[in-house]
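Each lists chain and fold; for instance:
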Amino acid sequence: MRHDRLGLNNISLQDAAAFWEMQLLPNDCLPAIATHALAEGYDSPSLRRLAGETETLASTLGPLFTKALTELGVATPDTPSAQMAVAKHYARRILDDSIPPYEGARLIWWNVANHACLDKAETEVWDRLSIFVGLASEYEDYPPARKQHEDEIIKAARDLLADCQAA
């Protein structure tokens, strides 16, 4: 599954809540996330049930996931916080070589930055992520410089994570 490569099966509940808020969390990875959370020491009735669920229907898994978050006191982040959490996740995948730099930049562009540029309240998110839009676009438009753009994407991912830790 594609989301396995993106590292979604083993994300924290906080990151899972961010992906959920952004509507980027596939239903079929919710049981694996619940299993991972149980292994990390979280426990609730809904989390246990979700971990053992074999259905992949949104109508079954979605309510169980949101109930488990509530039972565990894991808040769903506001949209700008969710956007930054998702972007940081993709940046970590770029840096650990789980996904190629261009693909990671494109995920940040299409899954996060495009949404942030639509709302004035999310201007700060756009300002922090627009570098990925530019670099992914340049990668597509000028093939002779792809290696240089990949290096710049890796640097932008490092900078994003460093800026977020300093904040």
Q: What stands out?
A: The mean pLDDT is 90.
